[in-house]
Amino acid sequence: MHAPPPTTYDDIDWNLLWKNSRARKSWTSKGAKEWDKKAPSFSAKVLDSPYVNLVLAQIPVKKHHTVLDIGCGPGTLALPLARKVTHVSALDYSEKMIEILKGHIMEKAYTNITPYLCSWEDDWEKRGVEPADIAIASRSMSVDNLSGAIDKINSFAKKYVFLSDRISPTPYDPDAFAVLGRKFDAGPDYIYTLNMLYSKKIHANITVIELERDVFYPDIDQIMDTYKWMFKELTLPEEKKLENYILSCITPSSEKEGYIFHHNHPPKWALIWWRIRR
Fold it and tell me: In the predicted model, what is the mean pLDDT of the chain?
């Protein structure tokens, strides 16, 4: 009886590993309705985030380019990109996010942003979405079928694809899970995406974006809201423990009214990009 051939890298099913890891993660993927509720506070926070400039500095946009922004949120990247390119197609599955984006478009009189209420799973072509020179999925790769998502974004890009994916434990705080006595499993991060790309013969580039460790918040409630978002369901005793943990991580701001929160695990994102070669 012959022994089976030894397993090699080429035998690894990265899409299956991605799905297995997602099944074990400690956090719940948020649906459109959850993002609808979070949209107003999320919009106020991310539009001025240092993350925006750090990402935009890496994308080689030209005035004649078109951009497809998948998981656009309230316009985090779409709004500043619209000032630099010919047109931006902005997709999100949260109705409230699209509503907020439309408000920004009207307020600032943008004429070159087209919002689309649709998800990764929708038929973009039927919705009227056209391929763009640069396709971007910024912090929006929490999908069930990673392989399918990569194939899809690749097919809608003419020149470049840019993905920003989490580097574990971002955006979660394992210390907070420990304080509550909860097991923490981060689920899959950028390394699965990078290996999936390699298995598709896409040799991508990667830049690590690390955000600041100390972050200003105007009040403790906003920090609590940010942390509650990490957990599936919190009991009242757990909320109290979480509040005490947050209080141990803050100091009053010396510059303005509010608090500086010290992250033991500052957020890190992997900006993964490649040229389209047909």
Answer: 91
The answer for residues whose C-beta is within 8 angstroms of residue 277's C-beta and 6 or more apart is none
Model confidence at 57: pLDDT above 70: yes
Cβ atoms of 80 and 57 within 8 Å: the answer is no
Structural domain of 248: 214-262
CA distance 88 to 108: 15
Q: What share of the chain is helix, strand, coil (3-state, %, to 5)?
A: 35, 20, 40
Residues 55 and 73: their CA atoms lie apart, in Å, by 15
- Is residue 81 in some structural domain? yes
Q: Are residues 84 and 177 in the same domain?
A: yes
Q: In what order do the strands lie in the sheet with 87-92?
A: 113-117, 87-92, 66-70, 132-138, 157-166, 268-275, 205-210
pLDDT band at 259 (very low <50, low <70, confident <90, very high): very high
Residues 252 and 270 in one domain: no
Q: How many domains does the chain have?
A: 2
